[in-house]
Each structure stands twice: as structure tokens, then as C-alpha cells.
Design brief:
About 70% of the residues lie in helices and about 0% in strands. It is built from 12 helices and no strands. The longest helix has 27 residues.
Length: about 260
């Protein structure tokens, strides 16, 4: 990951690490942690452990009888915790993309089309089936967030109680839709996107509020450090290969889903 360390506390004469994060490093960081989350859910939980074979309380009893199963469960938990770091990163990048896109319609259409393409790989990786209505992939969550951000942008610059109420209702409605559709990371991602947009001019405030919301994913607040140090630059790789980053989502889910099926 790219970065630099500089002296930023001259009064105390101490060298405190400060990592500059651009769009490319943020996306790489997000993709790696996202992969680890999917690896846990797919290969470990669905393939190696077979979570769907155990009823309530049965897995704990099975782990007591099988030390190897306990080790696998431990690794699955660790990988899933690391994967939680991706949630605030992608919510933040979504807002940055919305703020700087040249065409909102193209941005939304691209997100929606990749969400459609990703659904079968997502179901295969998460549920072991080519089609399952138990949940929808994260790109659909991002598409909903983009619609919400467009509405919030329409209200920009306007003041008053009615405007604030409309903002709250818009965010609440998006949360409801995300939960009804059972979108991955729906509740937290919607709230994070709203926070990162509404407090975009106050970096410290948006990071603190984001950490408070993302605590639901335990490790996710740690990504607040990367977001706080974002330098506002897109980065060459993120600009040149943006569609490759989109494609990585369905591709990695498909590969992990097939591996999980082969193991199971």
C-alpha cells in the first residue's frame, strides 16, 4: 500500500505515523478484506464446516467432540472479523464516487448491472445454491445508497426543520428497503453512506460517527484510520482499471463458491 510517514506533531517532537491513502490504496484495502470475508463465509463456513448441517446448539457440541472443527471455526471467525473492515471503506468510496462522478445515471446503471451479474455468484458463495432469496449482494445495497445520495444531494443547501425531516425520512426509507430486500451489510452501509455524505466537510466528525455506527461489525471502526487519512486523490489504478475493480466482486464470489461446492 502506498503511503508516507511524516512528522505531524512538532510541539512534542515525536514522530507519529501518518499514512496517506488515495483511491487506489483504499480499493485494494477494501478488496483484500472483502475477499477474506467471502473466504470465511464460503469456503470455511459453507464448504469445510458445513454450517447449514447444524441446528441451534449442535455446532457447539460438534466442536467439543472434534478439535479440528473447532480450529476451522476459529479461523472462520477471525477471517470474518477481518472482513468487517471492508464495510466502512466501500461505503466511503461510494460517497466519493457519487461526489466526483461525471454521470450519475451511468454510475447508478453500472452499479445496478454489476449487482444483477453478481447475484448468482453471491448466492453460490454464501448459500451453496445458484439462486437463493435469503439475501442479496452488496452491490444492490450500494445501488440503493446511490439513489439515497441523489435525494440528499437534491436537498443540499436548503435549511429548515422540513428539510431535516426529509433527510431523515429518506435515509430511513433506504434502510427499510435494504432490510426488506435483505441486502448484504444493508443497515450499516446505508447509515455510513448518509454520514459520510452529510458530514463530508467535517472529516473528524464523519469518522467518529462512522466508527460509532460500524461497531456492529466489531473490527470495522479500525478502518476509520484509513478514511481519516484519505488524501482526496483517486489514484492511477483506480481511474484506469475501474471496471476491473467492479468485476472482481462477482469473479471472486464465483471462484470461492465453486471451491466451496467442490469441498462440500
Amino acid at each position: 500500500m502506498e503511503g508516507s510517514y511524516r512528522l505531524n506533531d512538532p510541539r512534542r517532537g515525536r514522530r507519529r505515523p501518518h499514512l496517506d491513502m488515495n483511491g487506489t490504496t483504499m480499493k485494494i484495502y477494501g478488496c483484500v478484506t472483502m475477499f477474506l470475508y467471502a473466504l470465511s463465509r464460503s469456503v470455511f463456513q459453507q464448504g469445510l464446516i458445513g454450517m447449514d448441517r447444524y441446528g441451534p446448539g449442535e455446532l457447539a457440541a460438534a466442536m467439543e467432540a472434534d478439535p479440528d472443527l473447532m480450529v476451522l471455526s476459529g479461523w472462520a471467525s477471525v477471517l470474518q472479523l477481518i472482513g468487517g473492515l471492508a464495510v466502512p471503506v466501500f461505503a466511503f468510496l461510494l460517497v466519493e464516487g457519487f461526489l466526483h462522478t461525471r454521470s450519475f445515471k451511468r454510475y447508478l446503471l453500472t452499479m445496478f448491472l454489476f449487482a444483477v451479474v453478481s447475484e448468482v455468484p453471491y448466492d453460490l458463495a454464501m448459500y451453496g445454491k445458484a439462486w437463493d432469496m435469503g439475501g442479496q449482494n452488496a452491490l444492490l445495497t450500494y445501488a440503493l445508497c446511490l439513489v439515497m445520495l441523489y435525494g440528499l444531494g437534491f436537498l443540499d443547501g436548503k435549511k429548515g426543520f422540513v428539510i431535516r425531516l426529509c433527510q431523515v425520512l429518506l435515509v430511513a426509507a433506504t434502510v427499510v428497503w435494504a432490510m426488506l430486500l435483505r441486502c448484504a451489510f444493508g443497515l450499516v452501509t446505508v447509515l455510513l453512506a448518509a454520514i459520510y455524505y452529510l458530514w463530508r466537510e467535517k472529516n473528524g466528525t464523519r469518522v467518529l460517527l462512522g466508527c460509532a455506527v460500524s461497531i456492529l461489525y466489531v473490527t470495522a471502526p479500525l478502518s476509520g484510520y484509513a478514511i481519516y487519512n484519505y488524501d482526496g486523490q483517486r489514484g492511477k489504478l483506480a481511474a484506469k482499471y475501474k471496471y476491473i475493480f467492479y468485476a472482481l466482486y462477482p469473479v471472486h464470489l464465483l471462484v470461492l463458491g465453486l471451491i466451496s461446492k467442490a469441498i462440500a
